[in-house]
Amino acid sequence: MPNSSAHTALSRRGLLAAGGAFGLGALLTACGSDGGQGSGSGKGGAWTFTDDRKKKISLDSEPKRIVAYVGTAAALHDFGAGDAIVGVFGPTKKKNGEPDVLAGDLDVGKLKIIGNAYGEFDIEKYAKTRPELLVTNMYVKDALWYVPDESKSKILKLAPALALKTAETSMLESIKRFAELAEALGADLKAKKVADDKARFEKAAEKLRKTAKSSGLKVMAASGSPDLMYVSDPKANADLKYFKELGVDIVVPEKLSKQGFFEELSWENADKYEADVIMLDNRTQALQPEALKSKPSWSDLPAVKSGQVTTWDAEPRFSYAGAAPLLEGLAKAIEEAKKVR
pLDDT for 158-170, tens place per residue? Predict the structure, then answer.
């Protein structure tokens, strides 16, 4: 584990900046359990669900008071399981009060915000929500995303935790697992909205497949911090893995950081990999195009010079509604781009 000053520096620099897990291995301690796949049940009686740690969560009845990581909550909301969510933690509101990109279609004004950044988790506020279940993503085996290690034992005494795998798996598989959980929580997966969202997603996936096949373009997923540029690995990041499965030619970094997920490049070496299109991390903690203008090496990249930079939701929403626009956006960016390498 890093010392506290390193922890603070990493948090400020933008934890998870490269779209999979930013210093995850160092910053999160595994939450011990036997781990894997499963399903849920509980209409009108005892409720059970086996999460992606292979941990079976058993409750006397279907949980009606859930606190979740904001991105997890947004995906469950898309599937129709939002009514049970009473609180969220993780980046929920920007400084100007607007919802963070990770909040998706959540009405954040109606939810108790337990913490709004990494390391923030107000246990007193959490207790006041009377939680029956805590739900979050899992980027590193058995680790509960955005649940601070130093207070984890106190948090887990208040309600059982459930984690769904969101790394080193295809985004499509994660979406299916979120759908399973939503259904176990009472959502109707046959509802018109869900069916429409799925149809849009499937259409967008086919469009991206065809566009990628005919383009011959290379795409790089990147994130910027004041000191470093991060090039993300499609094997570890669920969305990139799925895009690659659809035929998108994504840059594969050669020298991954200790925790995996991405390669760290000094700004002097930002041109190490050639790309025709750059997907740029759009999260609050990552540098956006305006701020990146101060980096000459960024401005000199052929894709940047040609205006071929597209938005990248580096923490995607694992729902059909959340993912469809990502597929559409990438297909459009590739379709409108030209080879600049």
Answer: 999 999 999 999 9
Residue position matching structure tokens 């009377």? 130
CA gap 279, 223 in Å, rounded: 8
Angle at Cα 129 formed by Cα 87 and Cα 113, nearest 5°? 35
Rounded to whole angstroms, the Cα distance separating 116 from 122 reads: 10
Using alpha carbons, list the distances in angstroms from residue 294 to 50, 267, 306: 48, 11, 17
What digits encode the pLDDT tens for the residues 86-133?
A: 999 999 999 898 999 999 999 999 999 999 998 999 999 999 999 999
And the tokens for 274?
A: 């050639």
User: Which residues share a beta bridge with 72?
Assistant: none
Q: What DSSP assignment string belongs to 24-61?
A: HHHH-----S------EE-TTS-EEEE-TTSPEEEESS
What is d(CA 24, CA 318) in angstroms, rounded to the nearest whole number? 20
108 secondary structure, DSSP code: G
The percentage of the chain sitting over the pLDDT mark of 70, rounded to a whole number, equals 87
Say what the pTM is.
0.85
Nearest-angstrom CA–CA distance, 145 and 139: 7
